[in-house]
Amino acid sequence: MSTIELSRGPVEYTVLGGDPEAAPLVLLHEGLGCIAMWRRFPARLAAATGRRALVFSRHGYGSSGPARLPRSPRYMHEEAHEVLPELLDRLGLHRPVLVGHSDGASIALLHAAAHPVEAAVVMAPHLFVEDRTLRGIEVARAAFASGPLARELAFYHQDPGAVFHGWSQVWLSPEFRDWDIGPDLAGVTAPVLLVQGDRDQYGTTAHLDAAQHALPGPVRRLELSDCGHTPHLERTDDVIEAVHTFLVDPALRQETRP
Questions:
Q1: Does 149 map to a domain?
Q2: CA distance 47 to 23
Q3: Inside any domain, residue 52
Q4: The AB hydrolase-1 domain covers which part of the protein (predicted)?
């Protein structure tokens, strides 16, 4: 694992090998995630697509430096428009394929709306605040308070309390209730693959519907049966096959608007 110093502090990262001429994959983790919590998915995806893959932990996660807490209701915009561009520039990675999960999927869409990307794969994205999401966070808060989730997060993060409370408090705050990134998506012209499980405890396919309506560029959609909030872990083979097919589909390039 390597570390790079950014304006907001150090970030841990790793780059998996692949074709240097192909657009690199950039993986963006969920609200409680980090490099290690992707497990073997990045390596398998890089191998299947033949591309390099950047995997990193955002500030406050894993072994990266601390985050600025409490988070602003616009924290995902800040990650998309300030932190991620700086990281990619420092590493010399241009026009990436963004692969985001949950919060990371929202960050991917926001980044793609304002910066050049080759494509975006968004798994279980949040476009707005849904009642199911808030109920799921309340369940997670109870699991953290009772111990199991706190113990699990301690395996992956230097400060599991800051990770959990920094994420849950902003989502459950009154200021966040009107958060909605739908209007931002008008700037996304790159191809987008939307992925959602039918048993996702943090969101419904209403987010995919909203994304399809708002995105002006080519869109593909994958709904997975008997799958919860982590398609890349629960249905790994299906997700990898779908991403590979999506990235080599010549029709997407023809549909992409200049």
A1: no
A2: 14
A3: yes
A4: 25-242
The fraction of the chain above a pLDDT of 70, given in percent, is: 98
- Asked if pLDDT for residue 254 goes beyond 80, the answer is no
Cα→Cα distances 55→31, 33, 42, 84, Å: 15, 11, 7, 12
Q: Is residue 152 part of a domain?
A: no
Report pTM: 0.97
Q: Total domain count for the chain?
A: 1
Residue 239 lies in a domain: yes
Distance CA 37, CA 155 (A): 10
Residue 215's nearest CA partner among 245, 254, 256 is 256
Q: How far is Cα 113 from Cα 181, in angstroms, rounded to an integer?
A: 10
Closest CA to 206 of 119, 132, 117: 132
Domain that holds residue 36: 2-128+180-255
188 band by pLDDT with thresholds 50, 70 and 90: very high
Q: Is 188 left (phi over 0), alpha (psi -120 to 50) or beta?
A: beta
pLDDT digits 0-9 by tens, 53-103: 999 999 999 999 999 999 999 999 999 999 999 999 999 999 999 999 999
